[in-house]
Amino acid sequence: MITAAQLRAARALVGLDQRRLAELSGLSLPTIQRMETSEDVIRGNVDSLTKLIAALDSVGVEIIGEGAVSQVGGRGVRLKRAGSPRVAPEAAPARNDALPVDKGK
Questions:
Q1: pTM, 2 dp
Q2: For residue 38, with 0-12 CB atoms within 10 Å meaning exposed, 13-18 middle and 19 or more buried, which class applies?
Q3: What values do phi and psi take at 7, rounded to 5?
Q4: Structural domain includes residue 66
Q5: CB 3.0-4.6 Å disulfide test: which of 11, 56, 71, 75 passes with 61?
Q6: What whole-number distance in Å separates Cα of residue 9 and Cα of residue 77?
Q7: What is the pLDDT of residue 28?
Q8: pLDDT band for position 70 (50/70/90)?
Q9: Does residue 36 belong to any structural domain of this protein?
Q10: Domain of residue 10, CATH code
């Protein structure tokens, strides 16, 4: 299963727009748009979901299910379990000191 949020995040990680994902998956742009506006878990026929997952896999995205472990490793992003404390972006402290600064040297 893949959620709409996972799909949007997956596209963002590899810099794909909806149109390019539609081309890679062989699905229509309206289908991708519908999937991304789903409430939670994307509903669709098995063939469409398989094409979607295969297209994401082809560009290096692994969809990790709830409680699953990544089988191939690599960098990634994962939401904490439901109920874990979350800090809204506007409430999070700025961490400019964590970013490298090019001073032209």
A1: 0.70
A2: middle
A3: -65, -45
A4: no
A5: 56
A6: 9
A7: 97
A8: confident
A9: yes
A10: 1.10.260.40
Residues in the chain, overall count = 105
Dihedral sign, Cα of residue 34, residue 53, residue 28, residue 45: negative
Domain that holds residue 28: 4-58
Q: How far apart are CA 101 and CA 28, in angstroms?
A: 42
Q: Is residue 24 part of a domain?
A: yes
Compute CA distances 55 → 35, 37, 44, 62, 88, whole Å: 14, 19, 16, 10, 32
Burial class (CB in 10 A: 0-12, 13-18, 19+), 24: middle
Q: What is the pLDDT of residue 104?
A: 56
Question: Residues near 31 by Cβ (< 8 Å), separated by ≥ 6?
Answer: 22, 44, 48
Q: How many domains does the chain have?
A: 1
Largest Cα–Cα distance in the chain?
Answer: 55
